Amino acid sequence: MSCRSGRDNTCDRTGQRHRPPGRPRLPGDNDCNHHRHPCHTCDYVMPSSVFHYRSSVTRPTIRPTRSFEYYRQMVSISQTNLRLAVGNCQSLQLHFEQGLLEKVYMNIDRALIADVLADVEVGSEVTIGGWIRTVRASKGGFSFITLNDGSCMDCIQVVADKELGNYDDEISHLTAGCSLIVCGEVVESPGKGQRVELHGREVRVIGLADAEKYPIQPKRHTFEFLRTQAHLRARTNTFGAVARVRSAMAGLIHEYFQSRGFLYVHTPVITASDCEGAGELFRVSTLDLDALPRDDESNIDYAEDFFSRPTYLTVSGQLEAETYSCALGNVYTFGPTFRAENSNTPRHLAEFWMIEPEMAFCDLQGDADLAEDFLKNIFAGILNKCPADMEFFNKRIDNTVIETLTHIAESPFERITYTKAIELLEAADCKWQFPVSWGIDLQTEHERYLTEETFKKPVIITDYPSSIKPFYMRLSDDGKTVAAMDVLVPKIGEIIGGAQREERLDVLTERMEAQSMNVDDYWWYCDLRRYGTVPHAGFGLGFERTIQFATGMANIRDVIPYPRTPRSAEF
RNA sequence: UCCCCGAUAGCUCAAUUGGUAGAGCGAGCGGCUGUUAACCGCUAGGUCGUAGGUUCGAGCCCUACUCGGGGAGCCA
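YS: structure for the whole thing
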């Protein structure tokens, strides 16, 4: 058997161990590149798409129990895919023997339910794979199976006739959660609620799910319960939709920046600097916590640690992004961020994703302009890219999301200074729990009033007092405020925090010292101001908060696959 | 971390305020059906979050803890 079979890990040619494509290298792996070469028996070259698609994850394997004729029929269903997969091979039989057709069957020849429901013509033959949502079985006639494969919100209805060979043994016992591969004809549906349905010519049961134990029952579940089943919750309508919107939104964000010439910079996850003083940090260490090395004064000896100094998980890539911005112009980061704060709210995570653009030769106005244009693009884009999922959120989660996103995309954000905001709050007919006066940090109640009551749309507040903002924000000529801006949106509150950076070395070091920081630790950051300094600005956008806002999902733990929060890191 | 609320069947909840546990959904079996949150009947399923305490008696009252939710702070 060839090393390309995927079952035999030893190459019959080189004798080396063959690491399946996609699986990370493990100790003992000695990669064989044989599979990249033309097949020595038939000159076949495996298309790269096949390799990319192969997953290392163990999954059910369809044994080639069918006749060769059967596979040829299967393959004839989609000639395009056949050509892609089989290329210039001389003999289908040969590849069948080598297990290749099995791969075709498992990897490429599967149609997506989204495509079948939307595009595929009545009368076509397709093969789909998915997980059962509901079954309505009949002892007499046939069963209706609704199947979902995650490609879209909707399920396809599979009609399984009792004439099928495995009807009594298998199909009549199917329950929610079972996985199937179904091959059949797309027919017009006489029932309501769908354009087409699939008449199963073969319904192959791949994996069973014990109905007594399977947690995702065909009924309404609370999000609290589904959080305890995070490994299975993607099989529900809501979390499938969240996953699709999240992915689409990540794509939109990259598209936005890439199409405007922003460079994607990968800033480090492990950092030695507590860059903004932005809250508690997670420590990164290889020291033995039960036997910490001590120096002469019995302090912990970090010289013994992996990096020979205290290190942490990043709370922001901003400072590093600034360095690249001051060389390459416009850059952005998009990566994980970690905060060890003991925050227990529906808007906080210990591990979340943040987008941080940074622009050289840019001031606060340019920064705010980008923030507004960016949000409008993303929100308009997601309505355009995920209409069915957004429809679902609007119908089942929050019936204002589509209206709100449309409104945001079309109308300008409100822009006011901090000073003006304070005036508005002081004049408001409200009893504040936290009294309002110039110099205070705005509280949630104040932010919500401005964005939900006064303006009823996103508000950009600029020019905050320097005393409540970090050292790197540019000091204004009045000496009292800094060139900071926050974008506030209804319900979520602060979704973006940004600023024009202090580009004057003397002012910067003065402010660092005023905040009791050790300037020497930031020598490289100060170098930017020492050598060819330039006005620059940027902001940070919470990815999960953006998804929350776009979907209407109330709890941030439900818009990330595996939320990390205090006392909670299951899965 | 602070304040408030909650934890009862696989899930969502109820139990007349201290008298020994019930419904819907889900599941199993049977019936019916081009059905689509299908429908009808029957059946199974619970050390009432954990540990103490009060009481003749605790799901219910008290204390502590654990977990979950909401609000606040910190922030994105």
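YS: worth flagging: Chain A is about 30% helix and 20% strand.
IM: good catch. Also Residues 110 and 442 of chain A are 54 Å apart (CA to CA).
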